[in-house]
Amino acid sequence: MNSLGRASVALMLTMGCDDGRTVPPPAGGIDAAGRADAAGDPMDAMVFADATMAGGLDATAMDAMAMAPLVPVPPMTGAFDWPDIEPNDTAAQAVPVGILEGAMWMGFGATPSRIATNTDTDFYVFRTGNAASLVGQQPMSVCGSQGVDLVDLYLYAVVNGRLGALLKSAATTTPSCETILSTAEIPMVLMPESIYVLEVRAAAGLMLGANTGGYNA
Amino acid sequence: MRDMTAVPGAIILIDETNAKLWRFEEAATGPWTTAKNVPVGSGPRSVVALGSELLAASTNSRSLTVLDATTLAQTSSVALGDVPIHLTARGEKLWVTTGLEPADRAIQPWIRAASGWTRAGPPVPAAGAVSTAVGTMDQVMVLFPTVAEIGWLEDGAIVRREAVCPDAHSGRVVPLAVACRSGGIDAWIDGTRTHLEGGEVVYDVVGADFDRDGNVDLAGIDLAGKQALIWMGRGDGQFLEPRTHPVSAGPIALDLLDLGRDGDLDLVVLAFEARGFDLLRNGE
Q1: B165-173 mean pLDDT
Q2: How is residue A134 annotated by DSSP?
Q3: Which of A23, A87, B179, B282 is buried most deeply by CB count within 10 Å?
């Protein structure tokens, strides 16, 4: 084979993804399991996150931050895989996956990524590259593989190594996919050279039955 | 999209999200066309072609869907009793790697009988295994990437374990070779393992005599470098430095097919991030 002529064929598969609208999570704070919920509207959470990063915290916010769990530090290598390595049920156990490049990769490992129970949750921690790397990224979507509303998604800031505010959530009730950030939203919501936590949580009211609850991205 | 297989004149892709198989057909002229798609069991994960049949393994339904490779008509469904994660087939034989958790892994041997697919023996315990590859003499290699070992399936047991590159990802035939996520490939030439350097994160490998000189050549795909790698065999167990060819973003699977039916073996690369596949035509 002295040379290769290359042609590319784009696929037109219907992904079945939702419209990416956000639904506020339950009000909360940070519970004993390390699951964090910012109260109220996601936009409020965004404002809180900005304030946090700017250092403008009041005493209550400072206390909350001090109680937030430390999250693992993601490596400086590309996030080629987002393996569902249990236990990753809390932010402190989040799987460190590296730098967001191109697309999230879930479900490529030998062990399928899955929601194991009706209340299971999987945490991943990743970092962003420079500003240019955030432009044109694939949407941050996670898809179930059984035609039910399997997962909801929650994106958190990480501040001083600890779980910070909820930045955005995606909790539609449509089956198949949740999209937490579209291509256009990624450079607007994610800061360059920063660390974030993504929570893949069993959708509210999930009834898995005998299924294994596999998901992929 | 996680897996694909090439059949004469077409490429079969797994669509996990919609639990479907898609068949893309080579047109006489113009672009490839999406000929058809069909539903398969929930959570499809691996597909192989075996003669005129396709076998698709589905994790949620814990089953095999058997289809006609041309029409995609389902001919039967086979209950596996466990979660399948990988398929390897050759001739009338099929090896299914099963088990959701690594500790629970096993290899199920199946055989195609006149009455359909039937078990050829009890499951073989294979804790930590992720996949198998089968050689031309039906020798079955089992990959254990976390301990950087392979083993050989013989007489219902895994024997002769030996070292392999760390994080070995997938194995192929002719010759037996595995892709190394740690870079390069490992190939067994005349029974001896040889590591061939090339690429940073190699996800898949195939072997064939691309230039019809009688020597086996190897091709791999490098996820990080977004390139295909071609190692031309010299015939003495050694290979030339790999030639590289750019491919679309996120190459995860590779297969052989004969584009244009000219007798030359060409390559198809499934590119996850680009949501498409690249066709690399031999000789151009």
Answers
A1: 80
A2: G
A3: B179
CA distance A148 to A69: 32
- Asked if B197 contacts B231 with a C-beta cutoff of 8 angstroms, the reply is no
What the block records as the tokens of B243 is 């030639």
Q: Is A27's Cβ below 8 Å from some Cβ in B?
A: no
Q: How far apart are CA A27 and CA A203, in angstroms?
A: 16
Question: Which of B99, B105, B109 minimizes the C-alpha distance to B156?
Answer: B109
Beta bridge mates, B222: B202, B227
The interface residues of chain A toward chain B in range 86-145, judged by CB-CB distance below 8 A, are 102-103, 105, 107-108, 110-112, 114, 138, 143-145
Tokens of A21: 């609208």
Q: What's the ipTM?
A: 0.83
A214 touching B (Cβ < 8 Å): yes
- The 10s digit of each residue's pLDDT in A7-53 is 777 765 543 333 333 333 333 334 333 344 433 333 333 333 333 34
Q: What are phi and psi of B75, to 5 degrees?
A: -105, -30
Taking an 8 Å cut-off on Cβ atoms, the answer to whether B42 and A145 are in contact is yes
Amino acid (1-letter code) at residue B2: R
Measured between alpha carbons, how far is residue A7 from residues A3, B8, B35, B104, B111 in Å? 13, 18, 19, 42, 38
Q: Are B109 and B125 in contact (CB under 8 A)?
A: no
Closest Cβ opposite residue B245 in set A4, A9, A214: A4
How many angstroms separate the Cα of A62 from the Cα of each of A53, A56, B55? 12, 10, 57
Question: Cis link prior to B122 (omega < 30° from 0)?
Answer: no
